[in-house]
Amino acid sequence: MSVATADTIVYPRHQATHDPQLDYVLAVLKLAVQKSGKRYTLRQSDIIMVQSRAIEELARSNGSIDIIWTMTDADRETRLLPIRIPIDKGLIGWRIALLPPGRGELFSRVQTRQDLKPYTAGQMHDWPDTRILRDSGLKVETSSSYEALFKQLATGRFDYFPRSVLEISQELASHAELELALEQHIVIEYPAAFYFFVSRQRPQLAADLQRGLEAAISDGSFDRLFHRQFDPVLKQLQLEKRTRIHLENAWLPDSAPLNRQELWFAMPAPAPALQR
Length: 276
Description:
- This protein has nine helices and twelve strands.
- The protein is of the alpha/beta class.
- The relative contact order is 0.21.
């Protein structure tokens, strides 16, 4: 029997010392609960879990957690109950690289996926991004420790660490002692959706959160939360000025709501050139 009561939502404690997603995701989750009209209490698990462990725990009939947030794929949608609203507006698939100290211009001449092939990316072994990068012919070095990836990048074990535009600024700040560089020239982009998933033992929780998120989208409170959290970061990263390198994602299920334009991030148009 689950340790959670019917009105409790237990979410996993992640490896990250400073989890770059946690504050925003919890704000979205609290908003969904509020808009659902139901009463739930949120609680973090006692045990630290990597992503694959959290998925296994959620898939169990008597698991110790009730919800995770992660990039979707067909296997996860089979084993778990997805709430098909991309709480990140698809930006989990927009990636900017962290680079080793003193190598900020490493990609200054990179224009295409082919140009990236000589370089090796670092990723967690259980992230869907690892497969996406490899499917595109890119080299990937994996680790079982999220925090170790930053140190391995700093010591040159691999060349770059592609991070979501929603995470990278906070991650750079929280690892300032490593003096990592923020790449300035490219953005790697692939279609991806970051969903809440709940246990298949809790269909009512899924229905409540779906209803709450749809209500927040309808009344504009979801967009206000998203823009308040991320507009300053996105403006700083200047995506519209970067060379955009598109990768395919064969793992994105056909069920993704790509036809609902209001759910997805739209690239800002470049500023018009000044007339002289």
